[in-house]
Structures are given as C-alpha cells and as structure tokens.
Amino acid sequence: MTTITYNRRDRTGRPLGFVDVINKIIETAVARLGVRSGEPDIAAREAAAVRRMARFYQRQAPGFAADLYAAADRHDRDSAR
User: Fold this and answer.
1) What is the pLDDT of residue 43?
2) Domain-located, residue 24
C-alpha cells in the first residue's frame, strides 16, 4: 500500500486533509479547462473535467483515479440538492 503525505497548511494554519487536496485539484482542473461560473450547468462541467482527469491517471495511478471518480460523483450528487 502506498501512502501519500501532504504536509501543506491553509491560511489558518490547519493541515490540509485529503478532501482539501481533492478540492484544490478540482479547482485547478476547472480553471485550466476554462469553465465559467456563470453557466447553469457548472457542476456537471466541473464533474466532467474531473472525470477527464481521472481517465488520464487511470493507468499510472488507478487508486488516485478512483478517488477522482468518487469526488466527481459526490460533486454531482451534492450539486443536485
């Protein structure tokens, strides 16, 4: 089993957790893909961007790709509320 340690801290000084890291990855992917926040289907586009990133990492890091797919699914589910 591989363990990833990410010892970064946010502006308040608290350590960043796994969810924080995934959220940052999603924000970065969305920014790179040029998704605009004014669009009505923003959540669907963000989730699609994360799924594209997951497909990219599928062979090199299947566990990470699975985490990205799960994050995209959660994002879809949470945005439907």
Assistant:
1) 80
2) yes
